[in-house]
Amino acid sequence: MDRKLAAVQKLIKRRANLQAKTNNGNTPLALAAQIGNVEATVLLVNSGASLTEANDSGWLPVHIAASNDRANVLEELSRLGASLDARTEKGFTALHIAAEKGLNDVVDLLIRKGANLNLKTTETGRTPIFQTLFDNRTEVLSRLIKAGADLEIKNNLGATCLYLAVEGKKEAIVRLLLQAGASAASLTSTGWSPLNKAVWDGNLSMIKVMLSCGVNPSIKNKGGHTGLHIAAEKGLTDIANLLIEGRASLSMVTDIGNTPLHRAVLENQLEMCKLLILNGADMNAAQVHTSAFRPLHLAAERGFDNIAQTLLLAGAWIESRNKFEETPLHVAVRFGKPNVAQLLLSRGADMAARDVNGSTPLHTFARADNSRCLSSLMPYITGYFLNQRDVVKMTPFILAAYQCKNDALFAFSNKGADVNASAMDGWTALHWAAHKNDGETVKTLLFLGVSKWRTDENGRKAEDVARANGHYAVARMIANG
User: Fold this and answer.
1) d(Cα 240, Cα 261) in Å, to the nearest integer?
2) In terms of CB atoms within 10 Å, which end of the chain has fewer, N or C?
3) Is 294 within 8 Å of 285 (Cβ atoms)?
4) Residue pLDDT, tens place only, 223-246
């Protein structure tokens, strides 16, 4: 007779406590399960040993048997009434444990005995298929898939097994899951798809696996970003090429209307822009849900002259309009990007183009809160452009005074601006300077010959405007000018 079995029989005969525990909290039944002694297991249970007594780790005999690859003991425990779906304190079942350790015989037994394939652990919400990720347990995963495990269950962070396999760079498991029909369109709670995670990580080989399994290359994240949008903004040209070869859409837009080319421009990814253009991206596509900026507008806004040059050489429309009817030149001067402004002007951008407010690029420059484009504009400025009026009859000279741009006032005057022009309300540049209590601009305007006698539609001179607003020092300056 087996010595261990004989020892158990002796304990039982002496009426020893069958629930006595070792330092780790293991009962005699747990120890029998651990070493795989079927006869001792049967004898202990038949003599009253508890099937539900946990050790200090919260494990029952079924968990211990599973962990130690004791399929024969596990089967006997099941026959004797133990639940194969019993949980540890953290919610692990025998199937979780066997799946993680790659114990095929135990997994086969549990499946045959009807163990629940989809129970979640309590802390992380992982089912047995998730446990196969730890050490690439593809054989176990195949068994669970064949038995009908749910591939779309999400863990407590909202991720599927496929997403975690992609994140963990488990290519064999990813291929197996996709071939079994796992959804590549399922998003995490933060809105990420498995493919787009692979793109973000720059995992070219994983993307190849996914595309070879038929994954749609244009799946969107929350926010509407496809893998190509992500590759574009990160400058991942190899991945972008792969996605394009897989027929990823070049025209699909995010929730705010950006195409992949928009994203590449915004992130100053010159080589990516060239790649997208070469493959047919629309260089004049508007951001459909927002301000309708086109790629050239974005390059102008950011001051990316190399990208602007690339777009222009490829045929982007230099007079394209955004939602506010601004051209790229309007945008460049509004944001103070002299290099792009110079480039656009050198290629014939229209200085007389008007936005929805009737403003030309010179109006926009004068109204902007910076003067950085003045030197770029100067060679192209004539009196004709300087004396154009917007919808409220403001000229660039009046607007420059309103913004206290004294350098522009001198430059405009030298180029033929009508310094005494008045807007719709009859206010001249001097009226505005008086209203704003700007003594330096008042001095500049008086020096340039602006008349202090001009009156507005209410008959008020600039001096009157200053006094009405309590700007007495400026009023005296005008009176003495």
Assistant:
1) 11
2) N
3) yes
4) 999 999 999 999 999 999 999 999
Task: Give SS3 for 322.
Answer: coil
18: pLDDT strictly greater than 60: no
Tokens for 69, please give them: 């690859």
In this structure, the number of other CB atoms found within 10 A of the CB of residue 325 comes to 15
The domain segmentation of the chain, as residue ranges, is 381-481
Q: Topology of 381-481 in CATH?
A: 1.25.40
State pTM to two decimals: 0.89
Q: SS3 for 422?
A: strand
Nearest residue to 251 (alpha-carbon basis) of 221, 223, 231, 279:
279
Q: How many CA atoms lie within 13 A of 164 on its CB side?
A: 24
CA distances from 389 to 109, 123, 190, 365 (A): 86, 68, 50, 14
Residue type at 1?
M
- DSSP output for 155-217: -TTS-BHHHHHHHTT-HHHHHHHHHTT--SSPPPTTS--HHHHHHHTT-HHHHHHHHHTT--T
The owner of tokens 């997208």 is 276
- Compute the distance between CA of residue 333 and CA of residue 356 in angstroms, rounded to an integer: 16
